[in-house]
Amino acid sequence: MASRFRRLAAQYRTALFEDVLPFWEEHSIDDQCGGYFTCLDREGRIFDTDKFVWLQARQVWLFSMLHNRIEQRSRWLEIARSGADFLKRHGRDRNGDWYFALDRQGRPLIQPYSVFSDCFAAMAFSQYGLAANDDEAKRIASEAFANVLRRQNNPKGRYTKTVPGARPMRALAHPMILANLCVEMEGLIDAETLKTIVDQCVKDVMGLFLDEERLLLFEHVAPDGAHIDSMAGRLINPGHGIEAMWFMMDLAARRNDHALIDRAVDAALNTLEFGWDTKWGGIYYFMDSAGRPPEQLEWDRKLWWPHGESLVALCMAYALTGRTECWKWFERVHDYTWSHFPDPAYGEWFGYLDRRGTPFLELKGGKWKGCFHVPRTLLRCTSELERLANRTHG
Questions:
Q1: By residue range, what is the domain housing residue 103?
Q2: Residues with Cβ < 8 Å from 281, sequence gap 6 or more?
Q3: Which of 4, 46, 122, 174 gives a 20 to 30 Å CA spacing to 115?
Q4: Are the CB atoms for 393 and 2 separated by under 8 Å?
Q5: 320 shares a domain with 362
Q6: Of 109, 139, 161, at which residue does a domain stop?
Q7: What is the pLDDT, as a whole number, of residue 394?
Q8: Using one digit for the tens of pLDDT, what is the confidence trace for 20-51?
Q9: What is the pLDDT of residues 153-162, one digit of tens each?
Q10: pLDDT digit string (tens) for 220-236?
Q11: Which residues 6+ apart lie within 8 Å of 204 measured at CB?
Q12: Do 333 and 352 belong to one domain?
């Protein structure tokens, strides 16, 4: 197995450093206005110059993180600085909330309705502050984190479309992202505060959103965790649930909490079983827990990020538990992913496949896909596989 782990680690590492990162370094940097172009076609040509704040922040985080954890390359720090400076100048409104979208020059286009802009801004400036030894960036990260906490019970605030008090629901996205964000904020926020927040996030994710009997993560539940018989209440996003479970595994490993590790692994495996397309392969985008027609017309598409997050979760799960079913699933998802998503002609990964696995959009980036999930997947899997190789004989 050691040789298998080494070959796979080399495959993931080569794809990261010789394919995916060079694609973004070559095509995404806006040398005139700062920040990044994310709307890139198959060849890397720009088809729209609008800048989406959470994708800008994610790219700042990615290159700052590489500088901090892999190698202190001046080019990576320059790329991170381009986005950080752009966001410092243009990313926030007068109240300190982070816009959703800006034009190329940084003029606001879409109001700060999404708390996830604040989440990824906190992640970005935390890593960038460390990379650049920038106290202002660290302060911005702390302020963005405070925004996330302030908005967590009413994430969209005055921009919400729902009628107050009508069918109250909580969303899985908020506690799962906050749990991961707390890891990024270590060193900027006092440890006891972070521990309290993480404890609550774990309690919410594993206690409210994880169905105890079915071991599935529901996207929306009532405030007390009860299921709501509606399209939103029955919604399962397999990739989202699996991503949440590797966040839980990561936290559990830090705390040496074997019970939480086992529970998260069980849920990840069960979600894969539920979400796997047994006819054409790959992971469905959305599903209805009761097998009814999903609201989302794109429900049967195969997207890049659920497959990447599943690879991370399965690699981590096998490293933590040694369970053979984790490795069998890893190889299954690996084979599907590597035979469908990477583009051998122009590099990087396709993002959007139809049910049969054929790209129906050949873009490499847009409003939702940027320089984040693919490189993070490749890096996390490389690290896990190298550790497995180092501790395995034969």
A1: 33-161
A2: 336, 357
A3: 46
A4: yes
A5: yes
A6: 161
A7: 56
A8: 999 999 999 999 999 999 999 999 999 999 99
A9: 888 888 988 8
A10: 999 999 999 999 999 99
A11: 170, 175
A12: yes
